[in-house]
Amino acid sequence: MSGFCVHATRESPDTDQALRVSDGTRRYIHGSYQWTRKQRSRTMPTLNDYLLLRSDDCAGSWMVPFYPFIGGYQLTPEEANDPLALIITDLVPLIGALDNDVISHHREAAIGEFNVLDVLRNENGYPLTDAVTDAIALRDRLMTLYVRIRAHLARTAGPHLARFAHDIGYIIRGHMEWARETNRYRTPENPKTGELHDATPFTVDWTDHPSDDNPEPPQRNPPPERSALQAHPAATMLGRV
């Protein structure tokens, strides 16, 4: 991956675009380090802290800036720094990360790691089934936000920013198609013991109707100090587009 990043950025005639890729790569490496550190310490974060950490660890920060390279177009600095462009740059990978957390929970549990389902259970004190329901609801609200922003940019933005907003959505579908087939989740290997975990078969059902399309930030019995869901930057933008 690093070799490809270096080659692509050196060949790019657009210095600003190359910097966005390299900055995203640095963010991903830092996020992966922090993620590993948190998992090894077994320190359970709040939901808000988890989402911020997961959005850096899931590789989206370096993957999303590559889409203009792949498509053969360039975003101007003004387009790349448009507030809505910045939101979907973080939003799309986070949606994919939440999908991944639901699909891969049995794998994390088998090797002694945690993900968003465990964070929700820890914060709310409810069973796994409720955590799955809430994680999917949060994911669907974020997906609804992305679709609304994408439609808004298709109407109002220039052709390159509108294309960028559309193209990065393939990350979500592409991840789901991969995750439903890969042995990483079908029969994941425990890297500590080498044992194969016989995962319960799962299916992915596609639908045009989100489980929760409320445009307001989620309300889920937050801790007294703050609402973790409301504190997340993506969630706070739900009613503004």
Low-pLDDT runs of 5+ residues are: 1-6, 222-241
What's the average pLDDT? 78
Number of strands: 0
Helix content: 55-70%
Can you summarize the main beta sheet? Answer: none
Distance between the termini: 35 Å
Descriptive overview:
The protein has 241 residues and is mostly helical. 66% of the residues lie in helices and 0% in strands. The chain has 14 helices and no strands. The relative contact order is 0.13.
What is the gist of this entry?
With 241 residues, the protein is mostly helical. The protein has helices at 2-11, 15-41, 47-57, 60-63, 66-71, 77-80, 83-110, 116-124, 128-156, 159-167, 170-179, 183-186, 228-231, 233-236. The relative contact order is 0.13.
Give descriptors for this structure:
241 residues; mainly alpha; 14 helices; disordered C terminus
Layout of SSEs?
Blueprint: H1 2-11, H2 15-41, H3 47-57, H4 60-63, H5 66-71, H6 77-80, H7 83-110, H8 116-124, H9 128-156, H10 159-167, H11 170-179, H12 183-186, H13 228-231, H14 233-236
Helix pairs in contact: 1-2, 2-3, 7-9, 7-11, 8-9, 9-10
